[in-house]
Amino acid sequence: MKAGILVSCPSSWTLAQSVTDVKVAFLADIHLQDVYGDFESQEFKGVLNQKTGQMATIRTMESQLNSTRLFNENYFALLSALEDLRRKRIQWVVLPGDFTDDGQPMNVLALSRILKEYNQRYGMRFFLTTGNHDPVYPYGGPDGKRDFLGEKGQNQAVFSDPSLVSDSSAAISPPLANWGYFELIDPLQSFGFSQDPEDIFWTHPFLDWDYEGYSYEPIREKAGMDHRLFADPLSGFLLPDASYLVEPIPGLWLLAIDANVYTYSGPTERMDSSAWRGSSLGFNVAVASKEHQLNWIRKVSQEAKARGKTLISFSHYPLADFHQDRSAEMALLFGAGKLQLARVPLPDVSKLYAEAGIRVHFAGHMHINDTGKLAQADSTVLINIQVPSLAAFPPAYKTFHLLDSSTMHIQTHLIQHADRFDEFFDLYRMEHQWLNQKASSKTWNLKILDAENYLEYTQMHLQELIRLRFSESDWPERLKNLLQGISLQQVKTWLNTPVEKREALLDKMYDENQKAKQKGFLLEDFYLIKNGGDLGMGQIPQERAELYLQLPNRRLSSLDSSLNGQFSSFLRILGGLSTGLPSDDFFLDLQDLSIRRSGSLN
Asked: Record's superkingdom (predicted)?
C-alpha cells in the first residue's frame, strides 16, 4: 500500500483527493555521481575505501573545490533528502534538471535505481526534466574526466573511448560516455517522461490536445522520444524536446519545460557529438529556437484556466531575475560576463513566458536560494522560485503546500545532517598529502575535513571556492583587496562619514589594511547572501546582518571608476540582495501573486 497525502490507496485519489492540501517537493541540481559505480575498466576500478571495503569511484577534492558543485558527497545528501521526504510523507517530488553529472550511463542508472526503490517501497512519484548536464549533447557522445581520485591520491583520467586518450596512464570506461536524449530518457520514463497509468492526464507538445478523450493506451504509443522531435531552426536537423504536462492528482497540472538548447556547428554528421554545442543560457535562447514550445505553453495555460486547474511550471532554467532586480547594476560593477550574469533571463524573455500563461515557476541551474518576481506595468506578473542545489551551499530542497485553491505555502528545508557525508575524508587526506609533495602553491585547505555536518561542509566548500576561483576571476582587483581587509567598524565609519569625504577616508583605510593584512568578511558574506538568500543571512552574525538590512536606507553614490564608487555600488547591491523577497518560508497568493513572509501579519 502506498502512502498518500490525504488517502493511502492510489485507486481512491481520483475520488477523494483534491488540489487542496497537497504537498510537492523540489530537489534541484543533484548532479548525481555513482560514488561506488562500476567503471567496467581493466585499467582502473576505483580507489579502495578502507571504511567500507568498496572501490570508490570519486573525483578529487581539488576538483570539487574549484567547481560550483560537489561531485561526491551530494550522493549522500540526496539519500538524506529522500529519507526526509519519506518521514514527512511527501509523495510528489520534482527534480528540475541536472539530476546527473553529465548524463553518463553509470550515473543515470544509479539515479534510476534509487528513485525506483523509493517509488516501489514508499509510493513516491518523481517528475524529472532535463538540465544542461543531462544530456550534454542531444545525441550523446564519448566523454570522461581527468580528475577521478587515483590509488595514491593523484588525479586519474578515465575516458569512455580510446580516441580521447593521449595519456598512457588513462583508463577506458564505456559507462562514462554521455548519453543523449534517447538513451537517457529510456530508463527514466516512469519519472514523468512518459505517462503513468495512475495519471489523470499526460501529454507532450507534439500530441493533439484531447483532455476529455484521454486514454492511456493510445498515448503510450506516441510517448516515446521518436514522436517528440522538432526541426532546429538553424540547421534543419531534428532535435528532441522532453517537455510534458502531467495531472497526477485532480486539479494539479505540473508543466515540465525542457529549455535545453543545442547549436549545430557542423559539418560532421547530425548524431556526432562534436557537431553540437550545448548552451547554459536557458530561455534566453530557447525562446527563439523552441518557438513550438512557447506556443504549446500558451495552449496549456489557456486549457488550465478554462478547466480551473492549478498550473505550476518547472524547468532547469529560471524565468525571472534571481538577483532581486540587481543584475543590471551587478553587470556594470563586475562586467556582463562575470558571476554567471549571462544566465539571468532578459526582461523581455520573462515577459513573453508570463504572457503565455506561466505564473508560478520553479527552477534550478543557478545553485541558489531565491524568490524573484517579474512585475510589469501592464499587470504581467510571474513568480520565479529558485531551488537550491543539494551539491552546494545552501544544501536544501523546497516544498509547496497548497492550503486551498488560492494559497500556496512555500518552505525551504536545509540538509544540515547527511549520514555518511564524511565517508571519503581519509581518501582526501591521502590526496592532500600527495598534493603537498608536489609543492602546489594553491593546495586546498585541509580544515574542510573538520566539518561536523553537511551544511558546514558546503559552507566551507564555498569559502574555498571563493579563495581558489571566484576572488581571482570575478572581482575588480582593488575592490577585492578592500573587501578582504576592511573591518565592520571601518564600514560603519565610512557610512557615517559625509559623502564628499568618503573617498579620501576609504583610500586611507585601504592603504592601512593592505599593510596590516587583516582578514575581512564582506566577500564571503556577499556570496552567502547571493547564493543563500534568507538561508545565507542566517549564517551571518547578527550585527553584520542588521547592517546589510539598513543599507537601502543609506546614501550611496553612483558607480564610477574609483574605489569609492565601486564600494558604494557594491554596498547598494548587497543591500538589495539582503532585503529582497522572502526565500525561506513564505505564502504566495495564487490570485494576485502577492507574497508575504511566514509569520507576517501583512
From this structure: Bacteria
